[in-house]
């Protein structure tokens, strides 16, 4: 008889880029916490996306990242991405977003971002959503891949993910 190995859960990740004239960090964070629970927060110093998104989003832009304290099954990546698209639509005005939400999933082996855009290295996970392998965890570190967005290669963000991965690993270790 063939058996499959159970997959370990991981941590959900969110990145919120938003117009400060429309949203507050607290209001967006409360959306996240309501659905996914308490989370670690990072307000990155490096934010190269401001100019790119300024064309679509009005006013002064800000950003924060979150990663859950509790674990989720891997299937939650798809659900969380669909949820984030609902948030973006709910807050849009005249077809323009006032918040951009990236959703990801951190496992012991890698870090994935969910996206609506297909490409050769992205895997379809359902409902027109694809998983982008953004980092692999190899030889004790997160390793960027040729397609990893430069924004995510920022050392501060990698350190944030590494700290979360260490917390995840500790949750799998037997208690002594």
Question: What are the key terms here?
Answer:
single chain, 176 residues, alpha+beta, 4 helices
Q: What topology does this entry show?
A:
Blueprint: E1 11-19, H1 25-36, E2 39-42, H2 49-54, E3 61-68, H3 76-91, E4 99-106, E5 110-115, E6 122-126, E7 129-138, E8 141-144, H4 155-172
Antiparallel strand pairs: 1-3, 1-4, 2-3, 4-5, 5-7, 6-7, 7-8
Describe this structure in words.
The chain has 176 residues and is of the alpha+beta class. It has helices spanning 25-36, 49-54, 76-91, 155-172, and strands spanning 11-19, 39-42, 61-68, 99-106, 110-115, 122-126, 129-138, 141-144. Strands 1, 2, 3, 4, 5, 6, 7 and 8 form an eight-stranded antiparallel beta sheet that branches. The longest helix is centred in the last third of the chain and has 18 residues, at 155-172.
The biggest beta sheet, please? 8 strands, antiparallel
Distance between the termini: 34 Å
Uncertain parts:
none
State the order of secondary-structure elements, H for helix, E for strand.
Answer: EHEHEHEEEEEH
Shape by Cα distribution? globular
What is the radius of gyration?
A: 16 Å
Can you count the beta strands?
8
Structural class: alpha+beta
- Count of helix runs: 4
Q: Level of helix content?
A: 25-40%
Mean pLDDT value:
93
Beta-strand fraction estimate: 25-35%
Number of domains: 1
């Amino acid at each position: 008889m063939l058996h499959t190995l159970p997959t370990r859960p991981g941590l959900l990740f969110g990145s919120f880029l938003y117009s400060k004239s429309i949203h507050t960090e607290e209001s967006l964070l409360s959306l996240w916490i309501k659905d996914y629970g308490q989370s670690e927060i990072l307000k990155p110093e490096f934010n190269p996306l401001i100019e790119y998104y300024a064309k679509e989003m009005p006013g002064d832009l800000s950003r924060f990242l979150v990663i859950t304290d509790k674990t989720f099954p891997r299937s939650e990546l798809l659900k969380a991405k669909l949820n984030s698209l609902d948030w973006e639509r709910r807050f849009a005005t005249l077809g323009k977003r006032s918040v951009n939400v990236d959703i990801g999933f951190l496992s012991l082996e890698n870090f994935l971002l969910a996206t609506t855009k297909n490409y050769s290295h992205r895997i379809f996970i359902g409902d027109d959503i694809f998983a982008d392998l953004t980092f692999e965890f190899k030889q004790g570190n997160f390793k960027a891949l040729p397609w990893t967005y430069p924004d995510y290669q920022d050392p501060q963000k990698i350190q944030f993910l590494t700290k979360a991965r260490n917390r995840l690993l500790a949750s799998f270790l037997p208690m002594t």
